[in-house]
Write a structure and sequence with these properties.
The chain is an all-alpha fold. The protein is built from 7 helices and no strands.
Amino acid sequence: HTIVPFHGQGMNMALESVADLARRLGDRPGDRGRVFTEFERDREPHTAAISELALNNYRQLRSAIAEDEHLAELQLARELERLYPEHFASEYNMVTFTTMPYADAKARARRQREVLAGLAGDSGPTNRIDLTEAGRRLEELGPIPTRSKEAVLVGG
């Protein structure tokens, strides 16, 4: 998979695709046409998502990293991850350190941003928010997968 390298997930995406395709071919060895059609259809949302996530990460690294607003958002994310590790993870951590499919990580990050924006109101996400209320609303999103990609790669 050719994508910009700013999430470091191109090789991981390729390995996921190989494993998925091998599983599908093993399940239906005599139906390659259907296997490839379904494989392409099912993988496309994840390849599109990681491409977009990698470009967004590049934009953040290029310009937003030194902005006060961005630094405050990172600090808030670290605090929410510390307080509610089962229900909040930064987009970067979901992409890099969980088995969550890329399109799901992108959608989860969007929902988390919506929760935080709703709590912050017009004053922006860096304003002090009620962390207890944030935790309650994040719990409504359900838990985040807890298995690391490393565990999957070594058969964990």
